[in-house]
Amino acid sequence: MRSYPIDSPEAATRLLAMALLADGHCSITELKALDRLGAPARLGLGPECFKAVIDHFCEDLLIASHGEWQGSAAIDSATRRDLFAEVQCPTLGAEVRALCEAVMLSDGHLAEGEVELLDELAKVWPRPSNPGPTAPPHERLAA
Length: 143
Known about the structure:
- By secondary structure, the chain is mainly α.
- It contains 8 helices and no strands.
């Protein structure tokens, strides 16, 4: 896999591409969701650059699997960790997670690879906890 600078729009877009291909293919519903969500602009890329990053990710997947298409679910855990590590900013990570979730849920079905990726995203970029009104005041203020 090619590498991108830490917290770059390309690194974030590649994680979104991983979500697009987590079930082995990219549906028209998911592509429309990207457009509706304004994903390229939200990640800081123009449409052409956004598409190029996704195309490069597909090429990298094919090279890694010796020409056999397996989608992004077949990426080994060490490579996944490396790709996740290219997005370190919590705000950018939360944006990536939100976009990935929206895209994967857009077709009304979650494949096994999508569920696994959602779990990984939640571990890497957990949502901030909201202690709620029953928590002691010092915990509510710290949140």
